[in-house]
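Continuing from the previous page...

OK, I double-checked the sequence for Taurine transport system permease protein against my notes and this is the correct one:
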Amino acid sequence: MFEFLFEYRGFIVGTIFIALIATVIWAILYGRNLIRTEKSDAVFGNPERALGGWHWVMTGVSAILIVWIYFSWDAARAFNPKAANELCQVGKLSSAINPIRSTFPLDDGFLKGTSLLVRENKQLNELADQVERLGFSDAEKSQAKETIDLMRKAIIGMTSPEYLDSATDAKFKEIVSRIDGLTAKLADQNYPGDPTAEQIAAAEKNPRWGDSGNEIPAAPASPRGYKFDAAAKEMKTITSDFSKIRNNNSNFLAQVEKLKGQIASLDTLVKASPGTDELLIANRADFVKGLTRVLRRVDDGNIFPPDALNNIQNALVKLDNEQKSQQGGLRYYDILMMPGGEIRAGSSSCSEQGSGRWLPKPSDTLRTFARISNPEIGYKGYPLLWYKMKPFGEMVDFIIPDFIASLVPGDYPRHDTNGIVTPNFKSKVRDFATGNFESFKVPMPSGHVWDSLLRVLAGLFFGIILGVPLGLFMGLSRFSKGFFDPLIELYRPVPPLAWAPLILTIFGIGDDGKIFLLFMVAFAIMVISARTGATGTHLSKIHAAHSLGATNRQILRKVILPNSLPEILTGIRIAIGVCWGTLVAAEMLAGTTGIGFVENVARKQSDYEIIWTTIIILGLLGLLFDLMMRWVIDKFIPWRGKG
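Thanks. Re-ran it with the corrected sequence; updated C-alpha cells here:
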C-alpha cells in the first residue's frame, strides 16, 4: 500500500497541501463568524469559555502540516518534480563560475587584488612599527627599512598598468572572448544540440528526487538541464585557465629577486648580531619570517592593475544575466517554493541545503516509518513495535518469587542409584515458580517503542507509589518536611543527565539503571506535587471535618487527598514529559534498544528521516499519555477549579 502511495506521492502531497490551505481559510472564516453570532453568558475567566473550538484545532494542525510540507520542499517536489534536477545543473554552472567570480567585487564588494593589497600593506605597517622595538643596530634598522620599502615598491609595480606585459593582457582578452562566447551559446536555443546516447542513458538511470542517498538526481534530464550542464563543463576550463594567469612582469620579477637577496642578507645579519635576551632573539627571527611570508604571498602574482580586469568583470555580468534569463520561471519557483536554502552542486553530486535538507519531507518520513515498522525489517534487527510469542511460564517466573518453593515442607528429591530423579511436590512447586514447565505461548508486545514505554511506566509507577505518600506527609508533618525536604531539594535541581553517567556506571547499561534514573525524576516531581496539594487544602474544610467528628485518617482520605488530587495528577502529567526526555537521553548514552537508541544511531549516520520519525513517535506517545491524563482528570476529579 505504501509503495502505491509513494508512486503517486506528487499528486497526493499536492492535493493534501491545497486541501490544508483550504481548511485553514475555512476554519478562520467559520471561527470569525461563530464569534459574531455566538451568545454566551460565561464571563471572562470562566473555564467554560475555553471548551470546544474544534475548528481551531483543525486550523492549528493544518498550519503545522502546511509549514512542514512547504519548508521541507515536499510541495515543491509535488508540483514540479523536475525542478531539483534542473536547479542541480544551474548549481553546476554557478559552482564553475564561483572561483573566477570571487576575484571580482560582484558579491563581496571588493576586488580580490584590493583585499590582498589592504592585507599586505597592513602587515608591512606592523613590521615597520616593530623595527624600532627589536633592538636592531643602525645597520640592521637600515637594512630592515630598505627591505620593507622595496616590498612596497614591488607591490606598487604590480598595480601599475605600465608594467603589465602584453602576454598577460592578451590572456585577459582571450578569457573575455571565451566568456562572451559562452554567453552567446546560452542564448542560443539549439545549444548544446541533441543529447548524446550516454546522456540519455544517464538520465534514465537517474533516481527520482528523494529516492537515493544523494537525493538530487545529478545527470541532466531536460533541455534546460542539458544546456546548463554543457555550459558548466565549458566554464570549468575557462576558470581553470584564468586561475593560471599571473602578473609576473619583468619589473616585478627583478624586484622579487632583489627582495629575496635583501631578506637573506637581513636574516644573516640578525643571526650574527650578539644578544642574550632569548625573547628578543625570537622576536627578531619572527620579524624576518613575517617579511618572508609577505614576499611569498606577493610572489603569487595575484595582484593586477585596478582596471585590467574590468572587461572580464563585464563579461561575467553579462553571463550572469543571461543564465538568469535562461532559468526563466525556474528562478521564481526556487524562490517561492524552496524557502530556507538552495540546491548546491558538488564535484559529483547535488544536495539540498537549508531546511530542505534537515527537515525531511512528510511523504519520505511516512515511507521510512512504514519501512522500519515492518517487523521483518525493523531497525538494527529489532522491530519498532510488534509482538512475539512467549511461554506462559516466563510470566509466571517474573510474577512469583522463587522462595515460595522453600516454604513448602520437606526436601528436594535426590537421584537414586540408577540416576533417576523422581519429582516430588516441593520440586514441582519450584519448577512452577521458576517457569520451568511446559506451557502454552501467548503474544507479548516487543520492539523499540515497547521497551521505552515499559521503562517510562516502571519509573513513573515507582515514583508515584513512593513520592505521593511522602509528599502528603511532608505537607502534614513537621518532622517529615524537616527531615526529607533537604534531601529532596538537594538532588531535585540537578539535571537528570548529570546523574545519568553515575547511575549507568553503577547499574550498567541494562534496564535497571534507566528505570532508576526515571524513578528519581518522577519521585521528586510527585513529592513536590503532593506536598503542594496537601498544604493547599482550605483550612475551613479541615475545621469543618473536625467539627463533624472526623478522625485524622478520615480527614486525610476524605478532605486532604481529594483536594490534593488536582496537583498530584498535574504532577503526573509533568513527570511523564520529563521522563520521556530523560529516557531518550539515557538510551542515547547507553542502550541497545529503545527510541533513544534509534535516534542516537540515526544521528551518527545523519539520517534525518529516522531522527524526525523518532521525534514524531515520541510526540504522539506524549500526546496519547496527556490525553489519557486529561480524561482521568475530567472523570475522577470533576470538582477541580470549582472551590
